[in-house]
Here is the input.
Amino acid sequence: MKKFGGIVTALLIAGLLTGMAVEPSRAATRAVRAFDGEWSVLINTAYGNCGSYRAALQIVGGRVVSNSQDYAASGYVTGTGVTAVTVASSVGNATGYGRLRGSVGGGQWQSAGGECAGTWSAERRGY
Here is the structure.
């Protein structure tokens, strides 16, 4: 992506909902950790001039982690794979929602200002 690439990438990939229990059960913890690992995310723009971008994200304990110097990603993945993630960079912010199932996933994203929007798809690496 030319303009919001780093932001969009972080958003889409990973995703997370904020309503997790303070002390999740062991089964819930195992379900969330089922999505842990390295993920490759492809972000496509359907509206606006943001282009396409591929990013590597990591999920650890149901939390999205970014090792990039270009953007910061935050969010969660629930035990059922529902994702919500926010990405921030010097260029702007974006939010993405979707679902992971097994070793793949996808959803939608939009920049904070509404300049761009589109879809994202993810694939777990080394799985």
